[in-house]
Amino acid sequence: MTTIKDVIEAANELAYSEALDTDLPLVKHIDISTATGLRLAEELGANVDVVEAGTYFMDCMIGQAYKQKKLDKHVEMSRDAAADLMDKIKFDDKDAYTAILKCVEEHHGGVDFHSLESEICCNADCYRFISIEGFISAVRYLRDMDFEDLVKLLRNKVDEKWNALTLDICKEELEPQYKLINQMFEQLS
Ligand SMILES: [Fe+2]
């Protein structure tokens, strides 16, 4: 019988192989959001397994979407890839199956979350840009970009992710880091 641990293993494999093949998302960013998601799930009493699968799946097709110039479709593409993979390994726990797909669908927020697990995935995603660790990883990755474009992209990403945060615990943790990053941007202009 296929268990959620099998889903996690397959999701992990898919997420990291896509990241290595396409360079997106950054391996470091997958590490950050998964570790954060697991920590939050434990602290908030959520289903740790659903969150772990969700954080692996949530941007798993962003590299393919970028290559096909369909970046705005990466959420749907990642959701479909997650569904295909769970179907392929015959994962038949309907509630967990739906909860995992919702984690992917809702990872940019702006919705009434299906579950706490979904909300945790969305908040964990934000650490990819507004934690100092995630921010520095992004700067390193994008180092070859035109400087003005790089600054613009990062400023937008940082604000987008700050606005997507919903959990108080995450806002408290990230506020000093968000302020520091913004102070740095202010010194540039
Ligand atoms: Fe995304």
Kindly summarize this structure in a few lines:
This is HD domain-containing protein. It comes from Candidatus Dojkabacteria bacterium. The chain has 189 residues and is an all-alpha fold.
Percent of residues in helices comes to over 70%
Q: Quick one: how many beta strands?
A: 0
Total helical elements: 10
Report the uncertain regions. none
Proportion of beta-strand residues:
under 5%
Bound molecules: fe (ii) ion
CATH architecture: Orthogonal Bundle
Structural class: mainly alpha
> According to CATH, what is the class?
Mainly Alpha
CATH fourth-tier homologous superfamily: Hypothetical protein af1432
Largest sheet: none
How far apart are the termini?
Answer: 58 Å
The SSE order reads: HHHHHHHHHH
Spatial extent as radius of gyration: 16 Å
Number of domains: 1
Query: Can you give the mean pLDDT?
Result: 97
CATH topology: Hypothetical protein af1432
Protein name: HD domain-containing protein
Organism: Candidatus Dojkabacteria bacterium
SSE layout and pairings?
Blueprint: H1 4-22, H2 27-44, H3 48-57, H4 62-67, H5 74-88, H6 94-105, H7 116-130, H8 132-141, H9 147-164, H10 168-188
The structure holds fe (ii) ion.
The site of fe (ii) ion (FE2) has 5 residues, from helix 5.
Protein name: HD domain-containing protein
